[in-house]
Automatic annotation (TrEMBL):
This is Probable disease resistance protein At4g33300. Keywords: Plant defense, Repeat. GO terms for biological process: defense response. Residues 1-149 form the RPW8 domain. The keyword Glycoprotein does not apply. GO terms for molecular function: ADP binding. Belongs to the disease resistance NB-LRR family. It comes from Arachis duranensis (Wild peanut). It comes from the Eukaryota. Gene3D superfamilies: Helical domain of apoptotic protease-activating factors, P-loop containing nucleotide triphosphate hydrolases, Ribonuclease Inhibitor, Winged helix-like DNA-binding domain superfamily/Winged helix DNA-binding domain.
Length: 825
């Protein structure tokens, strides 16, 4: 009995201890259940984000994450069971407690085991990838530095890395084969109208914006059969929304008559329609981007042997026949998109095919949308693609109001750009439609506006080109493959310009960062501007596009924050706006005359007020007398197609002191300034000058004997100065000179004997300098010379230099380049 009681008491005590343990576990279990639900609810989204981040994980790791996700889901269910279980159901609570312990152990083991391994693996991969990326970045920086130096000097192989971007763009287009994807049928039909039908003299190409009309027209012009039929007598003109009709008429008639310098007032005869069109001379005139029938009627006339190809969004009745450009087929749309998104014609194996097809569908089979959106997605991860696809699908489909919807879609791509690149893209709307923008203008503007160096500004250009948001164009002139950035321009599709305008005009007119007149206004300033003339404008860029402006046509406007002023006009007389003198922060001033004759500028006294001006670009104007004006902060001056007249002379025909007028000038460019015969000697006193470019100055006969005093000069361009017969001996004292371009100086007879003193000289460009038949012996001392570009018949005179430094020195024989009229704007 005593034994039985003893055993009974022991069992009862053990049971009570177990019950207490179970009860404690149940109580703790219920307390932990609330925390567990909160913890798992917070943790599960992170697990899901890792699983679907778009980063490829090895299959075992994907399976482990999937298993952990399932365990955590079951944990939530278990926690809810614990909370719903009766406190007195001891057995059930015990079982639930055991399951909670098992769950805790499972999660702990994963965190302490595989999770740590994953972290180590990720750290290892991250270190490796970052090291690899840093190596690539360092290599890119080294290349960028080297390219920037070569670009500034004309570059190895010519033109530097911006030209490399131009070449890569051309190669990329060529890699599509007859690319211009989906246009083969249209090309065949237009060719038949031009070459096979003598009864047609006005042929049209019509279609919606961005459908590839201009691309088709240019492809037709490049076609060998078309060029043979018209014996390369092809003129390509862009008309635009605000054309200068008189200038276009002069260009057309001058082309037909073989005289490109006709007076714009020359009266073009209207030939009778029944005139028999039979002549050996055949001409093709392409009128691109025509917006109005009234303009077209002033440009076309029936002339023997002459055909007009009219490219427009409208279908004009004046055209004898019109080809309507159709949207791309689904197959061609996919091919074009993949070319720009992946660099190949089909969807890569690793890509999400369904996602790619959805994005292509949203582009509406329009070439421009496919190129821009495709390029914006290149090298992006799947989550980025998903974001773009979602944004695209939220908009309306590209239908009847296609242009607005197309602009909305492409705006999505622009909004994903880095902020600084986006700003640079939007700045492009400040220039007139369908006009080439000299690259140098853009670079100068961005350097001053965005507080960036030239290197970064050039990267912006290349990046926008890679995204198909602008096009880089080389000037078609002999030897252009060796040209510098001065022969490279930027163009932009008019829909892309409209996109930039729309995005820039979101704010109220007084608060816009860019205040732009979208097209030429014949009657002066827009009424919208005049309504707010009593309020200050916040704009940093102000762009004006007018005809002739007189003093009475202006009103006082306030632009306290303006840093860039762009004045575009078409007239022979122009009164500069008085409000310029109330722009205290103006850094860049660009004045371009688009008329056929030189313009005389009035109100030049305002320049005295521009104390912060750093960059000045004047084009096709008669420059005024400079004496009496001091521009102490001006660092870059560019005069293109200008009449210098006596502006380099002071009062009483005494030489102006340029070193006093421009005490801090670093770059001076005179291009196509035909009345320049010599330079004032005071230019040699501008000791800050680093870049002197005298290009296409056909009447320049001599340089100042003291030119060698420019000890800071690194770049000397004397391209296409045919009357220049000698170089001053003193240039051998330019110890920092790195690049000299004397190409097409056909009467230049020799190099100075002491050229060997130019110890930092790296490149000489001397194409078409047939008068130079030998080089001084001192040339062997040019220890840093690495490239000479010359014609084949004179390359032998550099053989001794090549033998002296066989590895470092290279002779590059130039190729003959041909100038095609139709490539000019």
């Amino acid at each position: 009995m005593a034994l039985t009681e003893l055993i009974s008491n022991e069992l009862t005590g053990e049971l009570l201890r177990n019950l207490v343990t179970i009860s404690r576990k149940s109580i703790l279990c219920r307390g932990s259940a609330d925390q567990l639900i909160t913890y798992i609810t917070e943790l599960l989204p992170t697990i899901q984000e890792i699983k679907y981040s778009g980063v490829e994980l090895p299959q075992p790791r994907q399976q482990q994450l999937h298993r952990l996700s399932e365990i955590l889901h079951s944990g939530v269910e278990l926690a809810h069971k614990v909370l719903n279980s009766s406190r007195w159901n001891v057995y059930k609570n015990f079982q639930l407690a055991k399951k909670m312990e098992k769950l805790e152990n499972t999660v702990s083991k994963f965190i302490e085991g595989p999770m740590q391994t994953h972290i180590l693996a990720d750290v290892h991969h991250t270190r490796f990838e970052m090291a690899e990326r840093f190596d690539r970045i360092e290599a890119s920086n080294r290349r960028l530095e080297q390219y920037f130096v070569t670009m500034k000097m004309g570059g190895m192989g010519g033109g530097g890395w911006v030209e490399e971007a131009v070449r890569s763009m051309e190669i990329a287009e060529g890699s599509l084969g007859n690319s211009r994807v989906g246009l083969e049928l249209g090309k065949k039909k237009v060719k038949e109208m031009l070459v096979g039908r003598n009864d047609l003299w006005v042929i049209g190409i019509s279609g919606i914006g961005g459908s590839g009309k201009t691309t088709l027209a240019r492809d037709v012009c490049r076609d060998e059969q078309v060029q043979f039929s018209f014996k390369e007598r092809i003129l390509f003109l862009t008309v635009s929304q605000s054309p200068n009709v008189e200038q276009l008429r002069a260009r057309i008639w001058g082309f037909i008559m073989g005289n490109q310098n006709l007076n714009p007032n020359y009266v073009i005869p209207q030939w009778m329609p029944q005139f028999d069109c039979k002549t050996e001379t055949r001409n093709l005139i392409v009128l691109d981007d025509v917006w109005s029938l009234s303009v077209l009627q002033q440009l076309v006339c029936r002339i023997p042997g002459c055909k007009f190809l009219v490219v427009s969004r409208e279908k004009f009745q004046i055209c004898n026949a019109t080809y309507e450009v159709e949207l791309l087929s689904e197959e061609d749309a996919l091919s074009l998109f993949c070319h720009h998104a992946f660099g190949q014609k089909s969807i890569p194996v690793a890509a999400n095919e369904n996602l790619v097809m959805q994005v292509v569908t949203e582009c509406g089979r329009l070439p421009l949308a496919l190129k821009v959106i495709g390029a914006s997605l290149r090298d992006q991860n799947e989550m980025f693609w998903e974001g773009v696809k979602t944004r695209l699908s939220q908009g309306q489909s590209i239908g009847e109001s296609y242009q607005n919807n197309l602009i909305e879609r492409m705006a999505i791509s622009v909004n994903f750009l880095p902020e600084k690149i986006k700003k640079c893209f939007l700045d492009l709307c400040s220039f007139p439609e369908d006009k080439k923008i000299p690259l140098d203008i853009l670079i100068n503007m961005w350097v001053e506006m965005h507080d960036i160096c030239q290197t970064e500004a050039f990267t912006m250009v290349v990046e926008l080109s890679n995204k198909n948001l602008l096009t880089l164009v080389k000037e078609a002139r002999a030897g252009d493959m060796y040209s510098s950035c001065f022969e490279i321009s930027v163009t932009q599709h008019d829909i892309l310009r409209d996109l930039a305008l729309n995005m820039s005009n979101c704010d109220s007119i007084c608060e816009r960062r860019r205040l732009v007149m979208p097209k030429r206004e014949a009657s002066g300033l827009p009424k919208e501007w005049l309504r707010y003339k009593d309020k200050p404008f916040e704009a940093q860029i102000v762009s004006i596009h007018t005809g002739e402006m007189k003093e009475k046509d202006w009103c006082n406007l306030e632009f306290p924050k303006a840093e860039v002023l762009i004045i575009n006009f078409s007239s022979s007389e122009y009164f500069l706006p008085p409000f310029i003198q109330s722009m205290p922060n103006l850094k860049t001033l660009i004045i371009i005359n688009y008329s056929a004759s030189y313009a005389c500028l009035h109100n030049m006294s305002i320049f005295e007020k521009l104390t912060n001006l750093k960059s000045l670009w004047l084009e096709k104007v008669s420059t005024p007398e400079l004496s009496g004006i001091v521009m102490k902060n001006l660092s870059k001056l560019c005069l293109v197609l200008c009449k210098i007249n006596n502006s380099l002379e002071g009062k009483e025909l005494k030489e102006a002191d340029l070193s006093r007028i421009f005490p801090n000038l670093t770059e001076l460019t005179l291009d196509h300034c035909d009345d320049v015969t010599d330079l004032p000697s005071s230019i040699c006193e501008i000791h800050s000058l680093q870049n002197l470019s005298l290009t296409n100055c056909h009447n320049l006969t001599k340089l100042p004997a003291e030119l060698g005093q420019l000890r800071s000069l690194e770049i000397l361009r004397l391209y296409a100065c045919p009357d220049l017969k000698s170089l001053p001996l003193s240039i051998c004292n330019m110890i920092k000179l790195k690049y000299i371009d004397i190409s097409q100086c056909v009467n230049l007879a020799c190099f100075p004997n002491e050229i060997g003193k130019l110890v930092n000289l790296e490149k000489i460009d001397m194409r078409e300098c047939s008068m130079i038949r030998s080089i001084p012996k001192s040339a062997l001392s040019l220890k840093n010379l690495r490239l000479v570009i010359c014609d084949e018949e004179v390359q032998d005179m550099w053989i001794d230099v090549q033998k002296a430094k066989p590895k470092e020195f290279h002779i590059q024989v130039s190729e003959q380049q041909y100038d095609l009229d139709w490539l000019k704007d």
